């Protein structure tokens, strides 16, 4: 299942890995991962879009989900399944 999902991340972030693992578990086979390690322009882009400096920052379609905890909360509440089905 291909999805329009974008995730700003860093290589050493365990929460980034947890977020991606959840998405894979839900059948997502492609995440547009944007590494902000040593990429100040991508970090600034992320901050401009979200107002946040922490990673991961996840977008599904045009919806900003937030970080790992937000992604898991969306999954528990059923919102994530709806968002994923809306962008099929």
Show the helix and strand layout:
Layout: E1 5-9, H1 14-25, E2 32-35, H2 40-50, E3 57-60, E4 63-66, H3 68-77, H4 79-86
Parallel strand pairs: 1-2
Antiparallel strand pairs: 1-3, 3-4
CATH superfamily: Glutaredoxin
Topology, number of strands? 4
Low-pLDDT stretches are: none
Distance between the termini: 8 Å
CATH architecture: 3-Layer(aba) Sandwich
Strand content: 15-25%
Using only CA atoms, what is the Rg? 12 Å
CATH topology: Glutaredoxin
Shape: globular
Give a quick account of the main beta sheet: strands, pairing sense, barrel closure: 4 strands, mixed
Structural class: alpha+beta
What is the H/E string? EHEHEEHH
Strand arrangement within the widest β-sheet reads: 2-1-3-4
Structure description:
This protein is an alpha+beta fold and 88 residues long. The chain has one domain: Glutaredoxin (3-Layer(aba) Sandwich), CATH 3.40.30. It is built from four helices and four strands; from the N terminus they run E-H-E-H-E-E-H-H. It has a four-stranded mixed sheet, with helices on both faces. The longest helix has 12 residues.
In brief:
By secondary structure, the chain is an alpha+beta fold. It has four helices and four strands; from the N terminus they run E-H-E-H-E-E-H-H. The protein has one domain: 3-Layer(aba) Sandwich (Glutaredoxin).
Write a concise keyword list for the protein shown above.
single chain, 88 residues, alpha+beta, Glutaredoxin, four-stranded mixed sheet, 4 helices, 47% helix
């Amino acid at each position: 299942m291909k999805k329009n999902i974008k995730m700003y991340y860093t290589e050493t972030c365990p929460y980034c890995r947890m977020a991606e693992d959840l998405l894979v578990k839900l059948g997502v086979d492609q995440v547009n991962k944007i590494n902000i390690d040593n990429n100040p322009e991508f970090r600034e882009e992320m901050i401009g879009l979200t107002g946040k400096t922490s990673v991961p920052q996840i977008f599904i379609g045009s919806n900003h989900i937030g970080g790992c905890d937000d992604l898991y909360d969306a999954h528990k509440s059923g919102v994530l399944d709806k968002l994923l089905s809306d962008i099929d």
